[in-house]
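Form 7-S
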Amino acid sequence: VQLVESGGGLVQPGGSLRLSCVASGFTFSNYNMRWYRQLPGKERELVAYINSAGGSTLYTDSVKGRFTISRDNAKAAVYLQMNSLKAEDTAVYYCNVVVGFRDYWGRGTQVTVSS
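Output:
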């Protein structure tokens, strides 16, 4: 299983970014996917979830109405569209999948929201 995130960067408050995660090594369309984030010295926080078909999504309260998770099963990719970014969204963002009762993670992509 491999997960490769991209799309992070430096953005001003109020700006937008779109994160991507390309998956391989498993049948992507059969699995639910998640985006997490982690601030230095803190535990990883679940940000968004999408089911295997893409028809069900969940968000942590702090990002509701601002972030949108989506997926393209044909491309084995999951996305996180982040709008109205705030300084407190600054973190490393990770893509996650559970396959065979094991958690798999990408290396993460840094998102920095600062003026």
